[in-house]
Amino acid sequence: MELLANALNAESVIEGVETLPILDAMRALHLDFIQGYAIARPMPADALMAMVVQGYDLPEGSAKHPASLLGAYAAHLLRRPLMDALRRGWIDISVTTPPPCPLVAFLREHGAAEDHPIVAAHHRLVSVKSNPEQGYLDQTLNHIETEIQELVREAIHLEQRE
């Protein structure tokens, strides 16, 4: 929907942003506008005006530095087209070095070792993408991305239970 809104030079509003991890993911995806309990509960207009005048700060996190695993995964997904373009040779890698993956950076900041399942799967993903001799291995890449998706989903469910 966001791509369609951008193509039409329109702004979009994402509703139902109820939790801080979802807010973090919306930031990581650089969405135009968001609405939901993660920002504020419904309130009378005078309370809203008081909140605005007092200077309301959104909860921690930013598009460049996600504060949750969901936000880091959203930032990782946003980079997929760039990584595909690099792998296919559409962008000269000798001219630019992509920044580190936000998902792996988040996990390392939170103490994940190199043998962490998501980090290990990401290393396999990068090795496939960075080896031009392996050709276009879209099925392998999709399989590894699906594995990462499942590992992230499991980790988020574990976080929610704790």
UniProtKB/TrEMBL annotation:
Q: Which SUPFAM superfamilies match?
A: EAL domain-like
The residues covered by the EAL domain are 1-56
**Superkingdom to which the source organism belongs:** Bacteria
InterPro entries named among the record's database cross-references: EAL_dom, EAL_sf
Q: What is this protein called?
A: EAL domain-containing protein
Please name the source species: Acidithiobacillus concretivorus
